[in-house]
Amino acid sequence: MKYLKINPADNVAVVLVALQVGEKVLVDGKEITINAEIPMGHKFALKNIPENENIVKYGYPIGHARENINVGDWVNEKTIKTNLEGLLDYEYNPQDVNVDIPNRNLTFKGYKRSNGEVGVRNEIWIIPTVGCVNGTINLLAEKLRMETQLKGVDAIVAYPHNYGCSQLGDDHENTRKVLRNMVLHPNAGGVLVVGLGCENNQVSAFREMLGNFDESRIKFMETQKVEDEDEVGMTLLHEIYDVVSKDRREDVSIAELKIGLKCGGSDGLSGITANPLLGVFSDFLIAQGGSTVLTEVPEMFGAETILMNRCVNKNMFDKTVLLINDFKDYFTKNNQPIYENPSPGNKAGGISTLEEKSLGCTQKCGKSLIKDVLLYGEQIKTKGLNLLSAPGNDLVAATALGSSGCHMVLFTTGRGTPFGSFVPTLKISTNTALYTRKGSWIDFNAGTIVENESIEKVNERFIDYIIKVASGEFVNNEKKNYREIAIFKTGVTL
Description:
- With 494 residues, the chain is α/β, with parallel strands linked by helices.
- The chain folds into three domains: 3-81, Archaeosine Trna-guanine Transglycosylase, Chain: A, domain 4 (Roll); 123-248, Ribose 5-phosphate Isomerase B, Chain: A (3-Layer(aba) Sandwich); 254-479.
- 29% of the residues lie in helices and 20% in strands.
- The protein contains 13 helices and 23 strands.
- The strands form six sheets. It has a seven-stranded parallel sheet, with helices on both faces.
- A hairpin with a 2-residue loop joins strand 6 and strand 7.
- It is globular, with a radius of gyration of 24 Å.
């Protein structure tokens, strides 16, 4: 198959194999001659489209023609202009949602924590309250790895960041919330919190922010108050290690899983293969009693009404409207265009407008009802599908998903990326060529969906793989120890 017409209403088709000038394809019984060399993932016109007429993909407008487009023409960002402009008024038109998926009572091998939470990893983390001690925590982590050889734990990781001081208002609180959520994350069997002593994010106040916690697993050190921070830090870490290394995996229902949904470096196949696969998986996990979280608010613009009409009630609809408009307001307050998207890589992969990107991105959350909307730094409170306020930036959004309580992040990509956040970050390729070329980055291939395998069969393999990962199988970012965090910053730095 060389092309795909996604919806009967579409006036463009997506190229699955690069087409050459003069090549002929048969679409809906009509022979079309291709007028340009069209790369995989890009679009060609199925009819003559006059200037200003809508370009339709997925059954929805993705923008309008900047100029007259002829049948067989390459349709890209140079010939399409977004329809999006300014703030919008929304009306709640709830849809009937019927996701009938049986409960299969599946389990994985996880770590049951004393507070009732469940982890999919048993790691020791060293988390700084402030960036001034980044060097110290990196040294401590390296020493503990060498001394223990990781026996009895999945990883020992330091998570440096740039913040914790010289921040005001929301930025300061966001930093504290994300770090708090990391310290309490069930994938961490134990945590050493390291402070300097004079920073805004004071260790004593941060400790109070944690509430009740297991003092044998979470310990603190202020480097200005000890003679030798390396010696004291290693003593504390060995105390933590002695506890954490005794933890063992047990059978746990997959209803306990919380999964983040993310995409980056998308291409024209993202909305056809990998993102729909995540949508099918999301619906499946929710039907088993689990939870998924969709973020990247700017990549909801243009498809937000689809999400709004799937809200479980009017209150959740109002929270979703606020989620969207608050992020648009963030752009305008900073004198930036709201709809300046997609990125150069997206365009090279075949995505021409933000509407097109959003209609593909939002497929990651399937068809289930939206049960809750979370602010940045908030944690999952309600099982089912959640929306989370965070930008599209890959590492910032993935960090936000982990901070919300997600055990892992499912990350679809058509271009490829090696990064990982502080929870397992699974890369799902939209096309087989990427999976073949970048096997050290990509963990699962969804490209077979447009080749020889139904999405249902791919999802069965995907479910099995997710259970293996939740039970301890490392993904590529973990194998290479690519683990980072990035905290959202919106205001001034002192």
